[in-house]
Write a structure and sequence with these properties.
Length: 209
């Protein structure tokens, strides 16, 4: 058996301020740092092994990976380059275009709650100058197929530390959810979601606590 672990970064400064973050490279809050550490502690508790790490190029995801790995007592492997994290823009958060940096409540007042809800929760309607979730799926898919799927089939344990929408796209890619379902799936910050495989087939998927 091997695992694919999906981990959304800990709380960021703009999560705290209820802003659309997108590709803006904001840091973790103190709570976000603690969430990242707790994620590592949970993976250690459940005896999760990690062979490979993938992440976006954004610091909130990269720092979450580093902090969680340290809590798993794998930091020596990390520092000696025996445990490598591959960073790629394809795992970046959804680009919210003109909404980036705006407070979500203020945005609802400006554009209307219904319109903002459509931008946030529809599958294929992007905000002005931004990406839809469908666009995120389209950029995650080829990267996943080329770099991650072969490792899963080779029974490697893979950790992906990324963002709400790029992880939703990954869930679609592995077949856990359909496009019509995924927008309603909530991914809490700092909560490891473990997908277990047996001979390349999913046998179980759950948040660990």
């Amino acid at each position: 058996m091997n695992n694919l672990i999906l981990l959304r970064h800990g709380q960021s400064q703009w999560n705290l301020e209820n802003r659309f973050t997108g590709w803006t490279d904001v840091p973790l809050t103190d709570l976000g740092i603690e969430e990242a550490k707790k994620a590592g502690q949970l993976m250690l508790k459940h005896k999760i092994s990690i062979d490979l790490i993938f992440s976006s190029i954004l610091q909130r995801a990269n720092k979450t990976a580093e902090l969680s790995i340290k809590e798993m007592n794998l930091h020596n492997l990390w520092e000696n380059k025996e445990l490598i994290m591959s960073k790629d823009v394809n795992f970046n958060e959804r680009d919210y275009g003109d909404l980036v940096g705006l407070n979500k409540e203020e945005t609802a007042k400006k554009y209307g709650k219904e319109q903002v809800h459509i931008w946030r929760r529809s599958y294929d309607v992007p905000p002005p100058k931004g990406e839809s979730l469908k666009n995120v799926v389209e950029r995650v898919k080829p990267y996943f197929e080329k770099y991650i799927a072969p490792n899963i089939y080779n029974k490697k344990n893979v950790l992906i530390v990324a963002h709400g929408n790029s992880l939703r796209a990954t869930m679609i890619q592995v077949g856990l959810y359909k496009a019509s379902e995924i927008s309603n799936i909530e991914l809490p910050t700092g909560s490891p979601f473990v997908i277990s495989y047996e001979n390349g087939k999913i046998t179980k998927s759950e948040f660990i606590t």
